[in-house]
Amino acid sequence: MNDQKNLLSIKNLTIHYKTGGNIVHAVDNLDLDLGHGETLGFVGETGAGKTTTALGIMGLIPNPPGKIINGQVFFKGEDLLKKKHKEMRSIRGKEIAMIFQDPMTSLDPVMNVGDQIAEMIRIHEQITKDKALEKAEVMLETVGIRKDRSKDYPHQFSGGMKQRVGIAIALACNPKLIIADEPTTALDVTIQAQVLELMKSLKEKYDTSMILITHDLGIVAEICDKVAIMYAGNVVEYSDKNSLYLNPLHPYTNGLFQSIPDIEKDVDKLNTIKGLAPDPTNLPKGCTFHPRCPKALPVCSEKKPDNVMVEPNHYVKCFLYN
Question: Where are the alpha helices (DSSP H) in the chain?
Fold first, then answer.
């Protein structure tokens, strides 16, 4: 397969972790497409498999205990899962870059930030150290940090500034795909808005595609083109943003929307999705959401639903629409 229409195309990706004799079904037959220049919001509860999917794309699944059991990850028409370790090292950072969840732990505390950005540049570009440092200073200014702070260390920056440094490192080699793993979780609300606005403008400036992993549907509404709703290792609904927000189909998606506070309604308590996310070492038979689903049918506990296109480019895995 050589799908040049999409920058990224994931087919039947299955990732397991082996822990103490149990097998964690982290990602289960996942399908996903991302076009050139698009932003995909990857939404789901903690433990749904969002970060594991991102690490699978990057070739960073820790083995042991993790293992990619099955699937294909086509990037620019080539299957990344067939690449050798050395080939993936040349792709990471240059073609696909990641902005991590916690800037406090993703930066090296004993290396100044200019050197950290320059190091990424020198890994992928044949240039002198001085030229790389010049380029690092330009990248710092691009993300709104004065270039004279390139000699400062991560502990001298606030959380929001550290995340800007992380963005500068990710963008240093002008990658085609950025994976942002909950990049604003550790930041307060005002700084969140600034960082998201910065990511949105730089994505457009560099014509980069982006996967934004989050559990915040407000952030998705603000900057994403497409949305994938993930539950227990599987994408249960996938659509463009407008279709999903105006016509959410899967009961889990509806549950997520109904649990968002509405400032125009005076209520004593918020709606919740009953029950808990399933144990990934012991997933329910059939549709993994059926034990919590208010609309479950008898067939839901027997077999897995197929992926159905209900509207153009709006897919859902649910027997209500089969």
Answer: 50-58, 85-91, 103-106, 113-124, 129-142, 159-171, 189-206, 217-223, 241-246, 251-258
In order of 132, 152, 164, the CA distances from 117 in angstroms are 8, 12, 11
Closest alpha carbon to 231 in 316, 166, 118: 316
Report the DSSP pairing between strands 66-75 and 6-19: antiparallel
Residue corresponding to tokens 């822990």: 19
Q: What is the percent of the chain with per-residue pLDDT over 90, rounded to a whole number?
A: 71
Per the prediction, the chain carries an average pLDDT of 91
Query: Which structure tokens are listed for 186?
Result: 């550790």
Coil vs helix vs strand at 63: coil
**Structurally, what CATH architecture does the domain formed by 6-95+175-321 represent?**
3-Layer(aba) Sandwich (3.40)
Sequence spans of domains, the chain: 6-95+175-321
Tokens standing for residue 28: 């289960």
CA-based nearest residue to 239, from 313, 299, 176, 300: 313
Residue percentage of the chain with pLDDT more than 70: 99
Residues 65 and 82: beta-carbon distance below 8 Å? no
Starting at the edge strand found earlier in the chain, the sheet holding 66-75 runs 22-35, 6-19, 66-75, 78-79
| Tens digit of each residue's pLDDT (9 = 90 or more) over 180-212 | 998 888 788 888 888 888 888 988 888 899 999
SS3 label, residue 169: helix
